[in-house]
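Re: that backbone. C-alpha cells:
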C-alpha cells in the first residue's frame, strides 16, 4: 500500500494466544497506517511495527515504560522527534516506531462501546499512529481536540465512523 508519496511497510506480529486474530485485521491495520500518513502528508517510505500482545505483556510494558502497573489497550513507542526519524539503511524508509496492541482489551472495549472489533482495532491503530507522528492528548486541551478530530477524519475515510458515544451501553458493562 502506498501513502501519498512513498511505500509504507507495516510489520505485524502476533505474540498472544488469548484471541484469534480475525481475517482482514492485518489489512485493516495497514490501511489505517497509510490513511494517517496520507492525512499528515508524510513524504517518502515509512516503516511501522505493530505487535499483538495479551494483558500480562501490555501490563509489563506499561509498568516498565510508563510506570503504570496495569494493563492498557495500546502503547505507542515513537522513534522520531519533531519529524526527524531514523532511516533504515537497507530500505531508506523512515522508522516511525512501534505500536503494541492488547487484543483482549480491544475485544472488551469493542463490546463495551457497542461496535465491531475491526473498528476498535482500527481506532487504536489510528490513535497510535498519531502518537508516532508526535500528537499527544495526555494534557488535554486543544492538542487533545486536534488529535481526536484527526482520528475521526481517518476513521470516516476508512468507512469506520463512530456509531455511538464512547460511553458503555449500560452500567452492567462497566
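Recovered sequence:
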Amino acid at each position: 500500500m502506498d501513502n501519498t508519496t512513498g511505500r509504507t511497510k507495516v510489520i505485524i506480529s502476533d505474540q498472544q494466544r488469548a484471541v484469534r486474530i480475525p481475517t482482514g485485521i492485518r489489512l485493516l491495520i495497514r490501511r489505517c497506517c497509510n490513511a494517517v500518513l496520507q492525512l499528515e502528508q508524510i513524504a517518502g517510505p515509512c516503516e511501522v511495527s505493530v505487535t499483538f500482545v495479551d494483558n500480562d505483556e501490555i501490563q509489563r510494558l506499561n509498568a516498565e515504560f510508563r510506570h503504570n502497573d496495569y494493563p492498557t489497550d495500546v502503547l505507542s513507542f515513537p522513534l522520531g522527534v519533531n519529524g526527524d526519524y531514523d532511516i533504515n539503511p537497507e530500505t531508506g524508509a523512515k522508522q516511525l516506531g512501534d505500536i503494541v496492541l492488547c487484543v483482549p482489551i480491544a475485544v472488551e472495549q469493542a463490546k463495551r462501546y457497542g461496535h465491531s472489533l475491526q473498528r476498535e482495532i482500527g481506532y487504536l491503530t489510528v490513535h497510535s499512529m498519531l502518537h508516532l507522528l508526535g500528537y499527544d492528548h495526555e494534557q488535554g486541551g486543544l492538542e487533545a481536540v486536534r488529535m481526536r478530530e484527526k482520528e475521526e477524519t481517518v476513521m470516516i475515510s476508512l468507512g469506520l465512523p463512530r456509531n455511538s458515544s464512547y460511553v458503555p451501553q449500560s452500567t452492567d458493562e462497566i
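Residues 1-5, 164-174 have pLDDT under 50 and may be disordered. The domain at 2-173 is CATH 3.40.390.30 (Collagenase (Catalytic Domain)).
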